[in-house]
Design a protein that fits this description.
globular; eight-stranded mixed beta sheet
Amino acid sequence: MSRRGPKHFAKLAFVLTDTDEPADADMAHFRDRILTAGPGDELLTLWRRKLTAWDFEQSPAWSATAPRTPERRAEVYERLALSEDLRKALDAAVPVHREPGPVTISREFKPWYTREQAANRSFYWASYERLLRRKGWSDAAVSGLDEAAHAVVERLADPTRDDPYGARGLVVGYVQSGKTANFTGVTAKAIDAGYRLVIVLGGTLNLLRGQTQRRLDMELIGQENILGAADPNDPDALVGIDYQDDEDWPAKFVSFGARPSTLGAFDIERLTSRDRDYMALERGISALEFEKPDRTRALHDPANLHAARARVMVVKKNKSVLEKLVKDLKKIGPILGEIPALIIDDESDQASVNTTDPKKWEAGKVIRTAINGQISALLKLLPRAQYVGYTATPFANVFVDPGDEEDIFPRDFLISLPRPTGYMGVQDFHDLDTVEGEGKGQAEETHVRGIYDSTGDRLQEALDSFVLTGALKLYRAERDVPSDPFRHHTMLVHESVRMAEHTALALRINTMWHNAAYTGPEGHARLASLFERDFRPHADSTLPTPTTYTDLKPYVAEARRLISKGGTPVIVVNGESERDYAQPDLDFDRTPNVWKILVGGTKLSRGFTVEGLTITYYRRTTQQADTLMQMGRWFGFRPGYRDLVRLYIGREESLGRGRNAKTVDLYEAFEAICRDEELFRAELARYAPLVDGRPQVTPAQIPPLVAQHLPWVKPSARNKMFNAELVEVRSPGRPIEPAAYPQDAKMTARNTERWKPVLAAVSGTPTTCLLLPDDTSPLSRSFQAATTVISHAQLLSVLSSLEWEDGNVLAPHLTYLSQLDGRLAKVDDWLVIAPQRTQRNRIEAAVLGEGPFSLFRRSRQSGKLSFGRISGLEHRLYAQQLIDRPDSPSVGGSSPGLTATRGVVLLYPVVEAAQDDEVKAVAATGTAAADRVIMAFTVIPPKAAIDTKQQLVRFRTRDSTRPDAVIVNAL
């Protein structure tokens, strides 16, 4: 049962046994063993791993089915020739994991890194895989990482190829979501495959670089490579060897049992250490002199390559450090052209991107920022170097000038990693499917505590929450909840970027702490009240939580002691000097227990993982989307305490000064960015499937695709334009929902007038729309709506006549819709649904003499033309149920039904307003003025509205002589 695919199991089992012929009784015994196996059964563990690996494998040679689907599992069983009852037993023991896998947008590439090749050379990957399993990773998590890392390595150039090629790629993860594990897996697979120089660009601080070095040393490089020839039992030999003062050495560092070179593999030489960044090649140029068994052949020849040691360095993104590295490499000479190298850029949108203004370039010569210039120099010196960037905020990398062949645009591939199991991210803090007027959603209700003018600053409450959650962790640890995640317990306070303000704030928090009386009656009364109104109602029912504060009270004193340990509960994290980050309580690896309140600014964001973060107090304003997103340190893994996580965030913060000052809601600002990020990922997933074995979208086409859906995103180079022009987007069975509507009142009025025939047709007695139980609710729900059916020609006439301020955002969709007259597919008509708000919140008015209609309140995202979400969740789910089940009598209530050739339109008369009182003012006379009503809509074509090719997107090249170019000079 190799990675070549499943084989006939009974025959294979027979070959491996001593019996003369296979017996049905043996298979029956096997089935019974599976049915009665306990969680730790070795046989079941083996089958779980194999089935999961086969389920997850991307595009295997032995199957055309999609991974992670029942169809893939059925084919596996068919190839194994298993009986029906055995299939059921295995399905019960090992259910199909249906969570989405990585999404890949890629150029076509020449396959070289097959599963067989990966299996034949897998020394370091196999070791890393074993370590992950020892750490408690599930089979699904290990297989998921395996597939994602394999997808990266197979798109790098074959390290043994004769002609040099340097691939450029980007891996997009989530903030604090385990990207390091992915690039550790990529590094393991890459060096197994033949890459012999790995340069990891590991952050802009020594602390971050050292953390990355330690992680690679511990989980990949291992004890034997760190020790070299030193005898681990000879104290004198260990002088100067890394990690002798580390509490995790050697127990938690991977061990191979002997030097890898004595085990038929190859050693790794470290060119940097935990405490020493790249200073210079310590042994001079000889450190990069690769041994060649056959000196008549190049290093990349297989005869030489697989016997050579690999070199690994973790380098800080610092101009002087990178200059030293480039200077040393220049001394080495021609062999640089023979070295298969891999450059991994952690947080690749920080410092690595060229941010110089093209208008200031002289005679068209590119001027580079310091770090970008050194990365470019590295890529030129190493013609066989592959560059892979890692980031959670990809827009800066996606919009790098792709015409610059020496830059880091991901021209070959972009891989979007799935949201990991157990990760607290966007959906845990923001209810993205709710719309204004529906109140708080569950995520906001559970985890978010707004800071308004009316609430005061709530800083004392946040401190109380920190003490209370610390006590709850101690309570749980005594009741068999794994306590390792409780090793660190932290609170983050982020109000400003000014260091003087950090010092003053730290002093204030210290004063509040010492006056809080946590061990006295007043303090206990505050904590008891907070526990009853906040933490007990939202506690996870699967975790132990005291029923009263009295049961928790004994743990409060210990929590306070741990937080006050060392004399102060607060540490300040800022400054330009590395000394500011050398505090023991900032080294989560080496310090056994960090229970502290961290006060700081920018340095507490990018790349810095605040372990054990439970309470966040955030009031810093910024207008930069990627900066704001990276401040989201509250995202991450919170095993055993995710129900205790709280975000105190400013909802009425001042931004700017004087006449330019305005009030911003930071929670809404985060939500807007999160929507953009999620939309970006959703778009990649939508267009990733191959059509006729070829990509629908290449990395070169991502910028115009993203710009279409996120109108504020523009090319990075102002004097350039995209070479790939988005022509058509096809959406069978998927919503088309423009978010950016005109702000100009006259344009709005003209657009509303164009909907008048539809408004006239939809006026009348409302009908009941019945939403059947689904994943969002086990109960049926209903809402009232006015409905009508209009012809396809009539809808197309209205949509084609609409005006837009910043280019026609609907144009690529209209190209598609216009062909649904039978040329591409046939749509006869459209069911128009104009929903009504609930009776309690309903505000009605006539529009253009028709109606009355229920007016909906929406507000635009900060600084943008676009609204957050137009359609309500229940309305959208109802429309989708109609689309998914055409001709079904069980859907719909009293509204008209659907056929396979009928689509759905959700129509909303929207008033741009922040409060319902503003909507009431528009409707005060019973008639809403046309220039105050935005006719917003969602169009969902039938699922059958597509041809047999199933191609969803189409581009046109602006310069047909350069079809693979991404941009051309603007005229």
